[in-house]
From TrEMBL:
Pfam families on file: EAL
SMART domains: EAL, PAS
Protein name (record): EAL domain-containing protein
Recorded GO MF terms: cyclic-guanylate-specific phosphodiesterase activity
Superkingdom of the organism of origin: Bacteria
Transmembrane domains' residue ranges: none
InterPro entries per UniProt: CheY-like_superfamily, Cyclic-di-GMP_PDE-like, EAL_dom, EAL_sf, PAS, PAS-like_dom_sf
Coiled-coil stretches: 294-321
Domain PAS: start-end pairs: 179-229
Span of domain EAL: 493-745
Organism of provenance: Candidatus Macondimonas diazotrophica
């Protein structure tokens, strides 16, 4: 489905998307640490990525706000060490204000009204996870509008500074073009396009700095110049900033007076003269400096000011809608949950839960408002209700979601029915404002809970999580299948933890190294380091059998340390013998969450001349969940001369934004992108887009899980830099130089 061009080019859109990809930081005031973690669990169960922090008193709140900023403050309405008004006042004093949600079991109506007037959102009970999540999402959306205003203001100031710098460096031509390549570039001009030094852009094809919309215009200008027809008017073009945005500029083009054959110069427009083109060709005197045309700049400033005013208006509208809709929304959610709970059990068939997420509505919220998005969701709900079996229930529990109950004979049949409904509504058109849109929807299905092991509310949350997992994996349907009881899982995890610690104690672990083959003649031979476990009988166990239990029990952190220290010893030995090897070592979520563990890694990385090409590899999903921690780690690695690698890259809709935040050295494509690469043009285009972004930012792209010659050929055509997989090379127990490698036979059932 095509996206309207005008929808996503306003200042602040990038900020809102970036905020959506970052786990929410929620501080819980007054409550106990356990209660704070319980609130975080409720929000996570309701589908939000959230990190909670306990703030016990006013001193701790003041100290925390001095060094950090949460996305959300949650405060009980009842009296405690921190008075509710003190929390709200301090939150409102921040720029932009921090949203505050006030909760309580027996609310005082006077204090409730005061909280709402001061800007807080009052919530009846923190135990209502779905409602708490809905209010939290709405409050953060309002804050996003405020952030967009600040972003636009900062962009306005940045453009002013850049143009002032540009004017101060205009005594020389801003660029020289020789045979279509930039050979000499003015310092201010390179800075205007986002480059630190002129050398960063010199040697680049001139068309790379021209935005696509202006390339045909500039090509005609170059052809005219070659034919001796230089323009006598300033040429309006749009430059391509290194960060992806565009920069409007106005140029003259003339032959270089240096005598270099075929060299053209770009000059900014001089004041009006009888023959602008002759002036462009003449040497510039110090007293006759060219100055930029300011009309375009003034237009840009006026446009940004208008957008700031528009953001202010939209913020006021969203605030009013929010305060008006909150009380009836609470009643609606209670009624909807009651309707689901009363869905009768059929005589023959079984009951199933259905969740639907309309994932484009959050992006449409700034334009359409809550009322417009709600109208679109209800339109979709009416169309879906007409397809459901007679007697089915369909309700709305929170923003952008529908929840239903229906009957089917088996889970497989229920899954098949849900897929058919999704396909039938794939082209359903809804009206949003003055626009007609086709909304993309993702479905989830679950067997009806038995209430003995899981409540209805928890089952709905679990089904919603499966829907979001399907969305991340680019699938249309998520299914929650029957699993072992929590007791069985805990017992199995405990058994694995004991076996793994015994393996650590008795050295029944070893490493294998899978080569990562370069398509660009790299001097370094890269390998991904992988862990193998030998059981008590000496049989090798696949990581898929023990790694989930290792992460749930905390043993993964110990295994990460073991892999890192042993891999570093091997790498150091390899480099001592002049083998230019480089290693990729994975970090688990347990290590990312442990400050002590991250300090351990940084302490053990060799420094200075002893530094080795060791890249810490983190999965995209773990980065999304713990972005702030990974950002800090990436900065520490860069300071020591090391780089970061992002694994399973591209499955998230915010993947490129994550890369822009982290500036990794390598990104490894998610396996899901390679599964249909031969037949799926969309998958090919997505990989091509990732490669183009990576090349613009000096990042190397690795394609793992290459299992056929056809896939290898496709990836080579798409410009991928490195390949990895069983087809390329099996993992090696002992490192060999490239000319010594042979492909060992794959053992039955063996996987890397």
């Amino acid at each position: 489905m095509e996206t309207r061009q005008g929808d996503r080019n306003r200042p602040g859109d990038e900020t809102l998307k970036s905020e959506a990809s970052v786990p929410i930081s929620a501080w819980v005031v007054n409550r106990s640490p356990n209660s704070a973690e319980m609130v975080g669990s409720l929000l996570r169960n309701a589908g939000l990525r959230v990190r909670t922090r306990h703030v016990p008193d006013l001193s701790a709140l003041n100290q925390a706000l001095a060094t950090d900023r949460p996305d959300l403050l949650l405060c009980p309405e009842s009296n405690g060490p921190v008075a509710m008004p003190d929390v709200i006042v301090r939150a409102q004093a921040c720029t932009p204000p921090i949203p505050v949600i006030v909760g309580g079991e027996r609310p005082d109506s006077t204090r409730m009204a005061a909280a709402i007037r001061q800007g807080a959102a009052f919530l009846m009970d923190f135990q209502a996870g779905d409602l708490l999540a809905a209010v939290a999402q709405r409050e953060i959306a309002l804050t996003g509008i405020a952030v967009s205003r600040l972003s636009a203001s900062e962009q306005l100031r940045q453009w002013q500074r850049q143009y002032e710098q540009f004017v101060a460096h205009t005594s020389d031509p801003i660029a020289t073009i020789t045979e279509g390549v930039l050979t000499q570039v003015n310092t201010a001009f390179s800075g205007l396009l986002g480059y630190d030094q002129p050398s960063d852009i010199e040697g680049t094809p001139v068309m790379d700095i021209i935005a696509p919309a202006s390339r045909n215009t500039f090509k005609r200008c170059l052809r005219d110049a070659q034919a001796g027809m230089l323009p006598d008017q300033a040429l309006s073009v749009t430059g391509q900033h290194r960060a992806g945005r565009t920069v409007p500029m106005s140029w003259h083009v003339g032959w270089a007076p240096s005598g270099v054959s075929g060299a053209l110069q770009i000059l900014i427009p001089a004041p009006s003269t009888d023959s602008a083109s002759e002036q462009a060709l003449a040497p510039r005197a110090e007293s006759d400096l060219p100055v930029p045309e300011r009309a375009q700049l003034e237009q840009d400033l006026m446009r940004l000011k208008a957008q700031l005013a528009d953001a202010e208006t939209r913020n006021a509208q969203l605030q009013a809608e929010h305060l008006a809709s909150l009380p009836p929304r609470i009643a609606q959610i209670k009624t909807a949950l009651g309707a689901l709970a009363e869905f009768p059990a059929p005589a023959a068939d079984n009951r199933f839960l259905l969740t639907i997420y309309l994932d484009e509505l959050p992006d449409l919220l700034p334009d359409a408002g809550y009322a417009g998005c709600e109208t679109a969701l209800q339109n979709y709900a009416l169309a879906l209700q007409a397809l459901l079996p007679t007697g089915s229930v369909l309700v709305q529990l929170r923003d952008f979601w529908l929840t239903g109950a229906f009957t089917a004979t088996t889970l497989d049949e229920a899954q098949k029915q849900a897929g058919q409904w999704q396909a039938q509504l794939a082209q359903h058109v809804v009206e949003i404002g003055t626009q007609s849109r086709v909304l993309r929807a993702f479905f989830g299905v679950r067997e009806w809970p038995d209430h003995a092991s899981v409540s209805l509310e928890a089952a709905v949350m679990e089904t919603e999580r499966s829907t979001l997992d399907a969305r991340s994996a680019r699938q249309i349907l998520g299914v929650v299948k029957r699993r072992n009881s929590g007791t069985d899982t805990a017992q199995a995890d405990s058994a694995w933890a004991n076996r793994l610690r015994a393996a650590l104690a008795h050295e029944r672990l070893h490493l294998v190294y899978q080569p990562i083959s370069s398509l660009t003649a790299s001097a370094t031979e890269y390998y991904e380091v992988r862990l193998r476990l030998l059981d008590e009988a000496g049989q090798e166990q696949a990581p898929a059998l023990f790694w989930p239990a290792a992460e749930r029990t905390g043993v993964a952190e110990e295994l990460d340390h073991w892999v890192f220290s042993h891999a570093l010893a091997v790498l150091t030995d390899q480099r001592r013998t002049s083998n230019q090897a480089g290693f990729f070592v994975k970090l688990s979520a347990a290590s990312i969450l442990s400050e002590r563990s991250l300090d351990w890694f940084m302490t053990h990385l060799p420094k200075g001349d002893a530094a080795a090409p060791m890249y810490l590899q983190i999965a995209e999903g773990n980065i999304e969940s713990h972005l702030k921690t990974v950002l800090s780690l990436a900065q520490r690695l860069r300071q020591e001369g090391y780089g970061l690698a992002i694994d399973h890259f591209g499955s998230s809709p915010h993947a490129l934004q994550l890369a822009s935040h982290l500036s990794p050295k390598f990104i490894k494509l998610a396996p899901i992108l390679l599964q249909e690469i031969a037949e799926n043009q969309e998958a090919q285009n997505h990989i091509r887009q990732i490669v183009e972004y990576a090349e613009r930012h000096g990042i190397s792209v690795i394609a793992g899980h290459v299992e056929s010659a056809h896939t290898l050929a496709m990836l080579w055509q798409l410009g991928v830099h490195y390949l990895q997989g069983h087809y390329v090379q099996e993992p090696e127990v002992v490192l060999h130089s490239p000319d010594q490698r042979t492909r060992p036979p794959r053992r039955q059932g063996e996987r890397a």
